[in-house]
């Protein structure tokens, strides 16, 4: 049976859904763990600050490992790294289920982050390698829909598990689910006629120095940005960390341009499609993440809705990702990425700017939901065509590291967006004489909080508006391909030859 599957014309979709299953369970895991945090806090009699490391440590490890694991998969084989990461994730989930202390639980989450970093670093690259260039957008759009479904299902599944089986169940459920993904991956992944076989080029070696430096830079950067508001942006740790990041970035750029087989070929950014596509993606996520983070504070602590009601109010925006992702990808396959990227970013920017100028202390719920849907719909229209455009100028031998880069762009933009928007809100609250903390938000300080929200949404809307401008410039100036890309595997590009074009 397995042989019939891997030799069938539909094998690429078996490959896709195997990886999509892993993506779905990973997104569900994140949403479920957030629901379980109060139970973990009570069980271990710990503080909220300590329990948050269950989430923070996991996210940090994934962000640090995405690029190195994406490139490692390109060099030694994506299937090998993906399966190893899945096995680590399953074992660590079992360890987290029976963790006797919070310290052990956080340690198990670190190991889960290692496994998830290996899976996420290689999964999308392996998925895209199974599709021809003409179907790339379709694959990316359908994958975005899977992510949206996981985002909807995660809190619901987590709430059910915690209510009836305890917080440990949100970790244990990953064991049987992970074993299913592991079995499917072992039998199906990259065993069929994928487009561009995943073979290691003879000249490729793994850039250990680049991987180590990039990991340290990302770790310090995320810690600085994530703690800048609580420590103070002018505090010694934040300033010192910023200086360390700047020095590390200078060394990383020098090293990656110097080494024969770089982890991330920085010359790709000289390509207009690639460089502007990456920048506009970062601005897109930067401008939309703050809305998802800040709006629950407004709905719960100003309008007075319960957490369950707020959770239901967030579903329509997530449904926009599920519904619009696949058709957006298919349209980009047929008509190209140019118009869709500009239209999508314009919708997201408009949603944020409407909130900036029209949000009131007692705005109607339908208005809030509609503007969040506009932002989410714009992100769905933009994301798949833009990712497809970035991938289109990259050799298949580097699909892993570039796919990982697109995910790192999302993660880093999310962290920076939350930090910047929070700083804007609490700083505005301070000018009204209100305690500059989100914990202080209540109906009595609604005027100060909403004023801060409006300034934050104005900043986010302008950021995405910048993305509209540079995406429009890219669309008008990038050369259109004169002929379809050949599906066959191409040799590994030399550092001096890759990424020099402007199309």
Helix-strand category: mainly alpha
How many domains would you count in the coordinates? 3
Largest sheet: none
Low-confidence parts: 192-202, 482-503
CATH topology of the largest domain: Growth Hormone, Chain: A
Task: List the main descriptive attributes of the protein structure presented here.
503 residues, mainly alpha, Growth Hormone, Chain: A, 3 domains, globular
Structure notes:
- The chain folds into three domains: 1-191, Growth Hormone, Chain: A (Up-down Bundle), CATH 1.20.1250.20; 208-258; 264-482 and 490-503, Up-down Bundle (Growth Hormone, Chain: A), CATH 1.20.1250.20.
- Helices cover 76% and strands 0% of the residues.
- It is built from 17 helices and no strands.
- The chain is globular, with a radius of gyration of 22 Å.
- It starts with a helix and ends in a 26-residue tail after the last helix.
In summary, what is this structure?
With 503 residues, the chain is mostly helical. The chain has helices at residues 2-6, 11-43, 48-51, 53-76, 78-97, 102-129, 136-165, 169-172, 174-188, 208-231, 236-258, 272-302, 307-335, 338-358, 365-392, 399-431, 446-477.
How does the SSE layout of this entry go?
Elements: H1 2-6, H2 11-43, H3 48-51, H4 53-76, H5 78-97, H6 102-129, H7 136-165, H8 169-172, H9 174-188, H10 208-231, H11 236-258, H12 272-302, H13 307-335, H14 338-358, H15 365-392, H16 399-431, H17 446-477
Helix pairs in contact: 2-6, 2-7, 2-9, 4-5, 4-6, 4-10, 4-16, 5-6, 5-9, 6-16, 7-13, 7-15, 10-11, 10-16, 12-13, 12-14, 12-15, 12-16, 12-17, 13-15, 14-15, 14-17, 16-17
């Amino acid at each position: 049976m397995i042989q019939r599957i891997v030799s069938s014309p539909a094998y690429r979709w078996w490959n896709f859904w195997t990886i999509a299953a892993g993506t779905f369970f990973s997104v569900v895991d994140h949403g479920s763990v957030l629901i379980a945090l109060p139970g973990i806090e009570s069980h271990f009699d710990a503080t909220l600050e300590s329990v948050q490391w269950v989430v923070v440590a996991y996210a940090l490890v994934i962000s640090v490992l995405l690029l190195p694991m994406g490139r490692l998969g390109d060099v030694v084989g994506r299937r090998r790294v993906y399966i190893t990461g899945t096995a680590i994730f399953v074992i660590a989930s079992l360890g987290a289920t029976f963790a006797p202390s919070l310290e052990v639980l956080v340690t198990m989450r670190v190991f889960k982050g290692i496994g998830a970093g290996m899976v996420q670093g290689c999964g999308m690259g392996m998925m895209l390698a199974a599709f021809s260039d003409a179907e790339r957008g379709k694959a990316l759009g359908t994958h975005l829909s899977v992510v949206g479904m996981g985002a909807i299902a995660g809190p619901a599944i987590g709430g059910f598990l915690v209510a009836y089986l305890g917080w440990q169940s949100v970790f244990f459920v990953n064991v049987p689910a992970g074993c299913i993904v592991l079995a499917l991956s072992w039998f199906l992944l990259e065993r069929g006629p994928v487009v561009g076989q995943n073979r290691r080029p003879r000249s490729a070696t793994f850039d250990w120095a680049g991987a180590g430096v990039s990991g340290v830079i990302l770790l310090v950067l995320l810690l600085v940005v994530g703690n800048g508001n609580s420590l103070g942006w002018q505090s010694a740790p934040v300033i010192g960390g910023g200086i360390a990041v700047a020095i590390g970035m200078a060394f990383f750029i020098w090293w990656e341009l110097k080494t024969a087989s770089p982890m991330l070929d920085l010359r790709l950014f000289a390509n207009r499609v690639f460089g502007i596509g990456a920048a506009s993606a970062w601005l897109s996520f930067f401008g939309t993440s703050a809305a998802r983070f800040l709006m629950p504070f407004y709905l719960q602590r100003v309008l007075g809705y319960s957490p369950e009601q707020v959770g239901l109010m967030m579903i329509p925006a997530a449904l926009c990702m599920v519904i619009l992702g696949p058709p957006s990808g298919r349209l980009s396959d047929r008509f190209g990425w140019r118009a869709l990227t500009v239209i999508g970013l314009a919708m997201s920017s408009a949603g944020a700017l409407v909130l900036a100028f029209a949000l009131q202390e007692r705005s109607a719920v339908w208005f809030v939901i509609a503007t969040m849907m506009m932002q989410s719909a714009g992100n769905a229209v933009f994301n798949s065509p833009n990712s497809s455009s970035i991938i289109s100028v990259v050799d298949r031998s580097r699909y892993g590291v570039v796919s990982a880069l697109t995910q790192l762009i999302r993660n880093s933009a999310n962290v920076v967006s939350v930090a910047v928007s929070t700083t804007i809100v609490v700083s505005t609250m301070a000018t009204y004489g209100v305690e500059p903390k989100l914990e202080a938000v209540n109906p009595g300080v609604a005027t100060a909080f909403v004023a801060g929200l409006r300034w934050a949404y104005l900043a986010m809307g302008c950021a995405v508006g910048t993305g509209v401008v540079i995406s429009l410039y890219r669309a008008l100036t990038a050369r259109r391909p004169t002929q379809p890309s050949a599906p066959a595997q191409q040799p590994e590009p030399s550092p001096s030859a890759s990424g020099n074009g402007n199309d």
